[in-house]
């Protein structure tokens, strides 16, 4: 299983977050760097994958962090190959 651990130090802006996600998870160059594009690439994952979100995602990104977590949850419900865990 692939495992990706997001680093909250890259959660200072939406742009930096999406650049971190693209680099870490090796998203294609056409990745749109927004939440709709994130959902699309997450639901396309074809091998067992775990994404670990930092516990301070909501604190670092505010409402965007709340929506980001929901996008990961929704994508994991749609794609059985994707699992998420939020650090405690």
How would you characterize the overall build of this protein?
With 88 residues, this protein is an alpha/beta fold. It has one domain: Barnase, Chain D. Helix content is 48%, strand content 16%. The chain is built from four helices and three strands; from the N terminus they run E-H-H-E-H-H-E. A three-stranded parallel sheet has the order 1-2-3, with helices on one face. Helix 2 runs parallel beside helix 4 (63-78). The longest helix has 16 residues, at 63-78. The protein starts with a strand and ends with a strand. The mean pLDDT is 97. Belongs to the barstar family. This is Barstar family protein. InterPro entries: Barstar (IPR000468), Barstar-like_sf (IPR035905). Residues 2-78 form the Barstar (barnase inhibitor) domain. It comes from Veillonella absiana.
- What fraction of residues sit in β-strands? 15-25%
> What's the CATH class, please?
Alpha Beta
Q: Treating each run of at least 4 consecutive H or I residues as one helix, how many helices? A: 4
Number of strands: 3
| Mean pLDDT reading | 97
Q: Give the number of domains.
A: 1
Q: Report the order of strands and helices.
A: EHHEHHE
The helix content is 40-55%
SS-based class: alpha/beta
* Annotated CATH homologous superfamily: Barstar-like
> In angstroms, what is the radius of gyration?
12 Å
Principal-axis shape equals globular
Please give the alpha-carbon distance between the first and last residues.
21 Å
Family: Belongs to the barstar family.
Protein name: Barstar family protein
Domain Barstar (barnase inhibitor): 2-78
Pfam families: Barstar
